[in-house]
Amino acid sequence: MTLKDYYKILGISRTATLSEIKSAYRTLALKYHPDVNKADDAHERFIEINEAYELLADFSKRELFDKLYDSFINPQNQNLAEQEKQVMNAQYRDWKEEAKERGEVHARMSFADYKYSILDKLVAIYDSTKLIIKVIFSVLLLWYFFGGFTCFH
Length: 153
Description:
The chain has six helices and no strands. It is mainly alpha-helical and 153 residues long.
């Protein structure tokens, strides 16, 4: 089995933060979307970028990938038992295939739809955070008016 260097694909270091991963992904995905980039390898490159993002942006997937990659690069490193490597390889292959399929879906989207789908994810996170803050504030107000916060009366 061959492993891709997802850090190299996104142009980031192995110690990159989640925000650095997201930033690199957004920049490269918008640059290599097949509607925008007419190079022969743009479609494959776009899918590869999506695959890298999917695996590195999720902490548990990234941790598994790092272990596999380290054992792949340095075969003398026997920190992983053979059975554990096989289980991790199977999980990696499943995640990689799922990420590739999502990349194919994104590649078939028009550039405008794809660009707005990224923005929609950010807005959804923002809206969820706003909703949580409103709920917490409402609960605190109700608590205050119905006998809570006795130190303020």
